[in-house]
């Protein structure tokens, strides 16, 4: 990608240009598109609130601008504010803020298909996706569930928005979500193709049809630029299509506000994505048949009173239900690299990942007596830090907002090694939600060995490394009776606890577990397991459990590695070597 302008300079220029419009009505053909993505229900803690977005939209309109507000997906799930009512309040707030169009992100499916349809039905904005289909039978061709595009008239200009959803939603959402009620075949699917060809064709067909009815055509994509989405990335789509001026992106939580990418005809297309969690408000300006400006716009702290009240009502309701203090944390337990937006939980060991895995192992064995050998927790289900200070149900529900179940399976050593190898595929080069944090287990990742696990078109595991060389090495299993570690036995059968999404449902592409013996699929909800573990820490002088290494209920295990005070975890996962 080639940067159109540096972000700070561009934002200043954009703000100046739009402010200048206040001296007189803007040209009727000009349209300002405000956009968000991956808000993940960060309604009350983002740098930009929905109420501020609504006020900024109103300010620009009062200055004579034609404004359209859109979202590129993942807007109903992510924090306790979303999980509180399965995203209904998030939709209500977006309605009040004045959104016109949104596409489906993979997390719009987290509460199930029925809830996805209910939320789409509540939305006053239009939902578009050119590649989400319903199949009438296992071998029947699909039909679109939502319109491929919509045209919004603003002033005298007509702007078409073509929606597209990452096909990896099949594995990044719970895979059973898309099955028919009997579980025998996939009732819902995403047009993709093994190398993306079918996806490109679906986008191109929708763009061509939309362009016939519009002055400007924009692709609103939940695609991203993560390596695990290779073939389906926004840059891939642009490179294989034509006939639209910009792609507003989501999914990878990236900040690229106005990059240029060459399309199939060799022409530049604007690619933009405004981070995540309402950290930025993106802005495109369309004029004279082109996208003439792209960047971020700075809100002024003003808030729309109606939207602000809805935000407050939701926050207050969640606080009443989940604001109970259950423990304290003298130091933050990190899922992010301190002081940055880098998601450690998806790329390396971290203290919040250790805590989540430990919670599962402790709960399964000490509370439920399930005699599990170890536990694993995917990094995509460790979504926030546990902040220093008071620990509440709300803060733990924010760490694990899905409300997913804990499952138990019996898997052999080879399947465990393959799972660790699959989870470590992006280590050293990027991030992957399937990166596995562990309790009762240690392993090393040698990043000098390039990952060569074989995956199918959806990114699901097919087999171990094609060259037979594993980058995951020295896997060792803890024995609580002896206080020692021994090498993973390829032929032994181990009892494993973890996120049922990964172990039982095959989510994130963990297909190696499909043939395992399923022992449990509903031991307890994940964030409640975190809660019970936090409550089991030794009580401090203030009379409340204190989350430290020294007060952990696992502290009595001899030679068991725990270091919750280190943001990078307890040393259970060692990353060595230099990526080629």
Under the CATH scheme, which class of the largest domain?
Alpha Beta
Strand order in the sheet with the most strands: 1-13-14-12-11-9-8
Low-confidence stretches: 2-13, 19-26
Largest sheet composition = 7 strands, mixed
Shape: globular
User: How many separate structural domains?
Assistant: 2
How far the N terminus sits from the C terminus, by CA atoms, comes to 22 Å
Number of DSSP helices? 14
Q: So, CATH architecture of the largest domain? A: 4-Layer Sandwich
Helix content: 10-25%
Mean pLDDT figure: 91
Number of strands: 29
Which structural class best describes the helix and strand composition? alpha/beta
* Strand proportion: 25-35%
Q: What is the assigned CATH homologous superfamily of the largest domain?
A: Metallo-dependent phosphatases
Q: What is the CATH fold-level name of the largest domain?
A: Purple Acid Phosphatase, chain A, domain 2
Radius of gyration, taken over Cα atoms and rounded to an integer in Å = 24 Å
